[in-house]
Amino acid sequence: MKLELDISIYPGDYNAAELHISFRAGNFSGEGRGWLRMAELDNFSKAIKKFPLGEEPYPCLAAGVWNEAATELVQEHLYFKVSPEGARGAVRFLVRLAVPDDSAAADGIAFSASANIRTNYEMLREMADALASLADGDASEIKLVFPVD
Q: 63 near 97, Cβ under 8 Å?
């Protein structure tokens, strides 16, 4: 089995952008989108390129709806986190996606999906380079395929 990850970026004002993300693994899929600062995407791409990843807190990236001052995420629509697993160079990659609907629930989330896959540093480096190309404006869409153990 494999996990296919598609990410598109739509730049906005004030060095922010909206990421659109979808993933598929067999018959399971999810999609979501959220706003973040371009610097956050750039910092995340650099952080996940490090070998080894180091100690907690492990690199993560979250996007969604921010408060008025843009200092706190009040509704999470997408979340990425990577962490090392074991001593043999394996890495865990977690992606959570949510679709908002103000009338759906108290937290404003209508649907959510997540995938937690095991991969390696080489695939993580490929992902880091692809995300950096989004952050730098060299690409507007990336597609990655992760083998799933």
A: no
Range of the domain at 95: 2-147
Q: Please choose, from the candidates 35, 32, 21, the residue with its C-alpha nearest in 3D space to the C-alpha of residue 111.
A: 32
| C-alpha–C-alpha distance, residues 1 and 109, integer Å | 29
Q: Which two tokens stand for residue 9?
A: 């970026």
Number of domains observed in the structure of the chain: 1
Instruction: Indicate the residue type of 19.
Output: L
Structure confidence by residue, pLDDT tens digits, 112-145? 889 998 988 999 999 999 999 999 999 999 999 9
Using CA atoms, how far apart are residues 144 and 37, in angstroms rounded to an integer? 22
| CATH number, domain containing residue 33 | 2.30.31
Across the chain, the runs of DSSP E, i.e. the strands, are 2-11, 16-25, 28-37, 60-66, 73-85, 90-100, 109-120, 141-147
Residue 138, both tokens: 């060299």
Task: List all residues 6 or more positions away from 92 whose beta carbon is below 8 Å from its beta carbon.
Answer: 82, 83, 84, 85, 116, 117, 118, 119
* Residue recorded with tokens 């679709």: 99
Question: Is the entire prediction scored with pTM above 0.85?
Answer: yes
CA distance 21 to 142: 10
